[in-house]
Amino acid sequence: MNKVLELLEPSAVVLNYEARDAEEIISVLGEKLREAGYVQDTFVAGALERERSMPTGLPLGGEINAAIPHTEIQHVKRAGLSLATLAREISFHNMVSPEEEVPVRLVVLMALDQPKAQVEMLMKVSELLQNECLIQKIMQAHTYEDVRDALSDL
Amino acid sequence: MAGKPKTILVACGTGIATSTVVANLVEEALRDRGFNIHVKQCKVAEVQAHLDGVDLIVTTTQLSGNFGVPIIKTLAFLTGIGKEDALKQIIDALNTAKV
Question: For an interface test with A, which of B40, B47, B62, B77 has the most A Cβ atoms less than 10 Å from its Cβ?
Fold first, then answer.
């Protein structure tokens, strides 16, 4: 099993979600990680603050763009991943050029517990971001199992 | 390549997530091309404190200020878009870095 699958919390996979904005989807995913015991009560506020000051929107050059919200390790109990596909594009800001907006439909919210400890997972997440075919499969997923099957190709 | 290793400082917002990916990919790509390099990571907010011995800064977020070394801002190692071009910029910057 690859590290993304290993760390992806099934109850924190939200598919075809109608979010109003970036804050809403970060809150929804962060709350699911909290309920599943991965993060502190302060995690959502930490992730929202970090997104405001240093956004995580990534233009991927294809039809679908992604965002990878995350925050400081002190808000995290143990490493975990949550994932959302969005029914409609919502606006994030570009990580490297924050004045630019990026219309996003795939959100991977990451809970990282130690510096440098999750290298393998992070490398797999970047592989995912670079694989348009795999992203399309995830966008079409109806269940966690569909996402799991798609990610097993990583 | 002979000589003292060049040091690249990779900075991102938290210093643990995207810089980890970039540091790994840059290190691997440059080693494959025969460069003797050392890669460090930090938060963008802490760049000033990590400048010792640094020849080049690579960052995935905004970074303002003059640190006396070249700065390359790129998402290429995360998204794959323009990766060869970003690598070329890094190599050019290292080749012109002071020994």
Answer: B62
